[in-house]
Design brief:
By secondary structure, the protein is α/β, with parallel strands linked by helices. It is about 55% helix and about 10% strand. Helix 6 packs across helix 7 (about 175-185).
């Protein structure tokens, strides 16, 4: 069955023709929840069609909504499942369907911190790149409501979801700043996100750590793993400030986590200095404005410390 006006086709597809969405941000069901779904699929089949889009590889379809249903169907011994095939989707539209359908079908409070963070970030990015369009959100609503046999009804209707940061916050009982925090946390590398899920790192310190570069985060995770250190809010803020000042080398990370640099004032306070006219006049013409000189000096210092950091890294290899 197809609808050319909407670009939607519904048909039964072989499970081996379905491919999971790359970097799917939601974990598959496990244990009792998975067992219940497998039992339901054996008894009743797939009640709500999987949402897919065709891939360039002819005859293969990417799952946008229904990863758990497909997994349960495999375990129940099914070879094929009913699917909605959505033609002509952009990658941003596909991301939006992935996040919307999962957030609607699951209880938001049941998601791990990393799932909340990645899902909200993907959603906000997809919405912002679409401008202020709500047509794709409305289409998703219609896809879900058209066959109202969802195996996991746990959330409010889609029309109350994610049309702006404020509605996102209201729908998931978060403040707008709470949404912003999760979107920041999504910038953490996966090992640090796992530490957040394991409650080794709380949300607010995780926000501060998200401002570290990916390389700094990698080195932080390694030092945490090798020494059993913990990161509280104070240490996370000190780490962030050192990163912003281009001073976060391995030794500094260790000292901060060990509590040897436990006060921001001690770690970042520097004495005031004055540069003599005879010094900077060698490099600037008389017509150079103070702000221009300040910007050039700052850039020169950044390059200096970047080279210092690279030199330390080469020596440690």
């Amino acid at each position: 069955m197809s609808n050319k006006a909407t670009g939607i086709t519904t048909q039964t597809l072989q499970i081996n023709k379905l491919a999971p969405y790359p970097d799917h941000p939601f974990k598959l069901y496990e244990d009792e929840r998975l067992d219940d779904m497998v039992r339901s699929v054996r008894e009743l089949g797939i009640l709500q069609p999987i949402i897919t889009r065709p891939l360039e590889d002819k005859g293969t379809y990417e799952i946008l909504s229904g990863h758990n249903r497909v997994n349960a169907a495999k375990l129940a011994g099914l070879k094929e499942v009913p699917c909605i095939i959505k033609e002509g989707l952009s990658d941003e539209d596909a991301k939006l369907i992935v996040t919307e359908t999962n957030l609607v079908q699951r209880s938001f409070t049941d998601l791990s911190h990393s799932e909340k963070a990645v899902a909200l970030k993907l959603h906000m990015n997809a919405i912002s790149r679409q401008g202020k369009r709500n047509d794709r959100v409305d289409e998703i609503k219609n896809l879900l409501i058209a066959n109202d046999h969802n195996e996991n009804k746990t959330c409010d209707p889609v029309e109350h979801k994610l049309k702006s940061r404020e509605r996102t916050a209201k729908a998931y009982e978060l403040s707008p700043s709470g949404v912003a925090r999760y979107v920041r946390v999504a910038l953490l590398i996966k090992p640090l996100l796992s530490r957040v899920d394991a409650e080794e790192i709380a949300i607010r310190p995780a926000v501060s750590l998200s401002y570290l570069t990916p390389d700094e985060q990698e080195r932080l995770d390694g030092i945490l793993g090798n020494n059993g250190f913990k990161v509280d809010m104070k240490k996370a803020e000190v780490l962030r400030e050192h990163s912003e000042n281009k001073m976060l080398v391995d030794r500094t990370i260790y000292q901060i986590l060990a509590g040897e640099l436990d006060e921001k004032s001690k770690s970042v306070s520097l004495p005031a200095i004055k540069i003599k006219h005879s010094t900077y006049s060698k490099f600037f013409s008389p017509n150079t404005k103070p702000k221009e000189m300040e910007a050039i000096i700052e850039q020169a210092l950044m390059e200096y410390f970047k080279n210092q950091k690279n030199s330390e890294g080469e020596e440690s290899e």
